[in-house]
Write the structure tokens for this entry.
Amino acid sequence: MREPDGDELDALLRDAGRVQRTRAEDEQVFTDVWSRVQAAMDDDPAGSGDDLQRRRLGLIGDREVAARRRRRTARLATVTLAVVVAGSGTAAAAAYIATRTGEELTGWEVGAGGSGEVLDLEGTDLAQVVEEATADIVFAPGYAAQRDRALAQYGQHDLGSAITESHLRSGVAGLAVCTWADAWVAADATGDVAARAAATETLSAALSWEPFLTFATDHQEPLPAESTGEGSYRWWMRPLAEAARAGDRQAVLDAVADSATCGWEYLPVIDADPAYEWHGLR
């Protein structure tokens, strides 16, 4: 199978995700996408080529079909918002784009992108949908700013981006765990026994939080509570919970450092601790 040029594929991906195109551009991109897919398939009729590349090409085609369908739906469901400009009497019209697409990934795609509804990160109501979808995920007390940051990051995306609801929830839940680890260290430093006990309990309970169980199932990974450190994205949560239960401050710091999830923005106390491996690093 011919190996398509990476830059050309990236360009097709960007064009396939761009919502606001002229009709002529729309038809040209659609034609280009399908001609590339067909050419790639013709080059390898026996299926001896790179399967991953064929899947990528197939996804490009599927994405363009879905984008065309969403654009048609959006045009039918466009809400005209009259914004009166003070002193001028003129009005501006804005198109409403729904974050919830009503679509889900299927088959092998679930193992790559997760389950649940596909959310359009360019949606007009994105902030509301993200808030609603993660309302049950609890951050540590006093970490409202970190929660706001965790949710706001989904509004910072490349044009045409989307995410499944399960990946959204798992990502936010992972950052919530970071704040509970930070709260544990803070309580340990001040001798607040009750607060440390609450953080320990939450870190243990987090091993069976629904977002993590769904993520593990979708990606055929060991559950967090059963992970031994291999083949699991959330492997670090088990040693973190064990360290908290044992009252081992350094082990808690080390588990957080190994997480590849907890950025300094979510660790105001841990980041300031000289015993933390990534102390002060940006």
Observations:
- The first strand starts at residue 83 and ends at 84.
